[in-house]
Amino acid sequence: MFEMADRDFEVGGGIIAGALAYRLFIWLLPFALVVVAGLGIAAEASSESPEKAAKSLGLAGLVSNSVATAAKGSARWYALAVGIPVLLIATRSVLRVLIGAHRLIWADVRAAAPRPSVGASARLLALLLAFFALSGLATKARVWSEGIGVLATLAVIVPYAGLWLLVSIRLPRRSAPWTALVPGALLFGLGIELVHLIAAYVFAPYALTKQGTYGALGVAAALLVGLFIVSRLVVAAAVVNVTLWERRTR
Questions:
Q1: Which of 47, 67, 158, 232, by CA, is between 20 and 30 Å from 178?
Q2: Consecutive 10-residue averages of pLDDT for the chain (250 residues)
Q3: What gap in Å lies between CA 153 and CA 132, rounded to an integer?
Q4: What's the pLDDT score for residue 57?
Q5: SS3 1
Q6: Which DSSP letter does residue 143 get?
Q7: What is the DSSP letter of 114?
Q8: What does the alpha-carbon distance between residue 202 and residue 200 come to, in Å, rounded to a whole number?
């Protein structure tokens, strides 16, 4: 634990998490645009309200509230056409920060670092969308039945960990095998589920009740706090992996 704390302090874990949280916040803008346009088109095709379509996909809280008002526009196809390329560009920016962060934490050499190519960005985007899909399924299970919701909440930790393992395998890790990334992936899976529960039952309701007082700043602040905690989990997962791997190699 002391070695982990020392490494986090040496690489500036809080600064790295802040940079990653900022990029994730920027990533959410085109993502919300694509969600708003896609759900608006899906709701129109199924004669369902955009708000009900959002909730059926598990996009509750802040995103659902935004979709309910914004998905009624007439330029949905234009928003979708613009949002998808911009979303891919924003995903490439997130990938670049992830590569730089893991290079710093692992003290990896520059030549061994992967490139944020279009293919790698598309794979990261698919994995990020899979995180949202799992979150939606868990939310739907909790709404449908309390008992099944508890089981789904516990069971979804394993897919979360598996998805993050797939992400971290593509990031700088020196010569460590993929098995050395499992502890950090498990930590991330457990942490991201806790963050999701806190965001669903604490952050989102509080931000929506304070929206009349603070306006958009309150919602933005709640999102930034949540994204910073997620980014801190990313840094912590990498710190755990490199510390345990170095101790084993010694």
A1: 232
A2: 91 92 89 72 47 47 50 62 86 93 81 77 91 79 70 82 93 89 94 81 65 64 84 94 92
A3: 14
A4: 45
A5: coil
A6: H
A7: P
A8: 6
What one-letter code names the amino acid at 130?
A
Is there a contact between 213 and 180 (Cβ–Cβ < 8 Å)?
A: no
Separation of alpha carbons 16 and 19, rounded Å:
5
Burial 155-169, CB ≥16 within 10 A → b, else e: ebbebbbbbbbbbbe
In contact, 41 and 80? CB cutoff 8 Å:
yes
Residue 190 token pair = 């457990």
Task: Please name which of 119, 120, 127, 118 lies closest in space to residue 99, comparing C-alpha atoms.
Answer: 120
Question: In 208-221, which positions are buried (b, 16+ CB within 10 angstroms) versus exposed (e)?
Answer: eeebeeeeeebbee
Coil, helix or strand at residue 191: helix
If you count DSSP H runs as helices and E runs as strands, how many of each does the chain have, helices first? 12, 0
Q: Which helix (H) or strand (E) holds 225?
A: helix 216-249
Query: In the prediction, which pLDDT does 74 show?
Result: 56
Instruction: Identify the helix (H) or strand (E) that includes residue 22.
Output: helix 13-45
Q: Tokens in use for 216? A: 């958009």
Question: Considering just the CA atoms, what is the radius of gyration of the chain in Å?
Answer: 19
Global confidence as pTM: 0.77
CB proximity list for 198: less than 8 A, separation 6 or greater = 226
Q: What is the reported pLDDT for 216?
A: 63
